[in-house]
């Protein structure tokens, strides 16, 4: 089952545009939070890596973990923009990097 979660996330992002328009956009922070939870919610120090991610944010641990794993690098100038909707390209890149870390 754990093998199918990243594929399912990618498929959800690739659904028809009309279906996506009706649903709320997935943010960059919530996408990483879902991936982090899929990875077992590995305990990680939520020390902010990016200037726009606060320790109190619900996705702070996931963003810090993903940055430490090399899954994300931010958007430049030390920012991550966790509230911005994630693009299909960004999601695909994160999932490809995650698959590489898993030896796939």
What does this entry look like structurally?
With 104 residues, the protein is an all-alpha fold. It contains five helices and no strands. Helix 1 packs antiparallel against helix 5. The radius of gyration is 13 Å and the shape is globular. The model has no long low-confidence stretch (mean pLDDT 83).
Summarize the entry for a quick read.
The chain has 104 residues and is mainly alpha-helical. The chain has helices spanning 4-13, 17-22, 28-38, 60-69, 88-101.
Order of helices and strands: HHHHH
Number of DSSP E strands:
0
Oligomer: single chain
Instruction: Work out the helix count.
Output: 5
Global Rg? 13 Å
* Major sheet attributes: none
Helix fraction bin: 40-55%
- The computed structural class is mainly alpha
Report, as a whole number of angstroms, the end-to-end distance: 15 Å
Q: Strand fraction band? A: under 5%
Question: Kindly state the mean pLDDT as a whole number?
Answer: 83
Features:
104 residues, mainly alpha
Reconstruct the topology from this structure.
Blueprint: H1 4-13, H2 17-22, H3 28-38, H4 60-69, H5 88-101
Helix pairs in contact: 1-5, 3-4
């Amino acid at each position: 089952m754990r093998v199918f979660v990243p594929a399912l996330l990618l498929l959800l992002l690739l659904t028809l545009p009309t279906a996506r328009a009706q649903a709320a956009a997935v943010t960059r922070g919530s996408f990483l939070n879902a991936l982090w939870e899929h990875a077992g919610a590995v305990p990680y120090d939520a020390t902010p890596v990016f200037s726009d991610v606060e320790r109190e944010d619900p996705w702070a641990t996931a963003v810090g973990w993903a940055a430490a794993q090399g899954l994300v690098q931010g958007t430049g100038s030390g920012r991550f923009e966790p509230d911005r909707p994630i693009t299909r390209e960004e999601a695909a890149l994160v999932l490809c990097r995650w698959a590489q870390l898993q030896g796939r």
